Amino acid sequence: MEPLLLSETALYDFLGQYLWPFIRIGAMFMAVPIIGARTVPARVRILLALLVTLLISPLLPVAPAVELLSVPAMLRVLQEVLIGLALGFSFQVVLHIFILSGQLVAMKMGLGFASMNDPSNGISVTVLSQFYLLLSTVLFLVFNGHLLVIDLVVRSFNSIAVGDSLGFEAFAMIASMGSWMFSTALVFVLPLFTALLVINMAFGIMNRSAPQINVFTVGFPIALIFGLIFMWLSLVAFLPFFSYIFDASAIFAEQLLRLP
């Protein structure tokens, strides 16, 4: 009985059927919210990426064979990593909108000095930013955002096959998300800004009419109390605003991946 010989091309096809999807999915898990946080060990993210890859690889189209130790293979690895990171970044912006909103409100209320460590990003943020981040994280799970990103990355293999790149238009869209993040965060806190501006104007009139009153001593606790009250009242609009941002981010991700 002759031994079964495995050709080099067949070996490359077999490895590529699992390797290239694993790279794209692993890069997505490294950048996506919650799963890509620093509090989640890298081994857990790698195991999740491997599990998803094993489940979906038989359903994906066959990728063109390429020698693994070559320049085209390195370029393909770079392309797959960029696609996965772009998908994860498009949803990471959703949480950073609320982190930025908390920073803006805290600076206006005088709580800019009250900061704490954010374990998910490894940076120092204000207390209000951490509060908004916790709320948005819970809503991200409620809206099944973790399932949506997996669905998008699986569908992306049909629109952007292994070996294809995002293109310059996609990178321009990613860059435009920066201005969208700042403008959306400002729109979210604009009512709070307006209310606190009226309070600061009242303190300015008080300082003109009664200069002997120390406005800084009196104004800080009053601005803080009214800021917390206004923030509590604005929580009514948190859910619909998050729903709008989440839907907009999902549409952006579909356009980025050229999905129908």
Structure commentary:
The chain is mainly alpha-helical and 260 residues long. The protein has one domain (8-256). Helix content is 73%, strand content 3%. The protein has 8 helices and 2 strands; from the N terminus they run H-H-H-E-E-H-H-H-H-H. It has helices at 8-31, 42-56, 71-109, 127-142, 145-159, 168-209, 215-234, 238-256, and strands spanning 115-118, 123-126. A two-stranded antiparallel ribbon has the order 1-2. Strand 1 and strand 2 form a beta hairpin. Helix 1 packs parallel to helix 3 (71-109). The longest helix is centred in the last third of the chain and has 42 residues, at 168-209. It is elongated. The chain starts with 7 loop residues before the first helix and ends with a helix. The model has no long low-confidence stretch (mean pLDDT 81).
Would you spell out the secondary-structure blueprint of this structure?
Blueprint: H1 8-31, H2 42-56, H3 71-109, E1 115-118, E2 123-126, H4 127-142, H5 145-159, H6 168-209, H7 215-234, H8 238-256
Antiparallel strand pairs: 1-2
| Alpha carbon gap, first and last residue | 51 Å
**Number of beta strands:** 2
How much is the average pLDDT?
Answer: 81
Strand content: under 5%
Could you give a short account of the major beta sheet? 2 strands, antiparallel
| Count of individual domains | 1
Computed structural class: mainly alpha
Give the neighbour order of strands across the main sheet: 1-2
What low-confidence regions span 5 or more consecutive residues with pLDDT below 50?
A: none
Helix content: over 70%
The tally of helices reads 8
Radius of gyration: 24 Å
- What's the SSE pattern? HHHEEHHHHH
The dominant shape is elongated
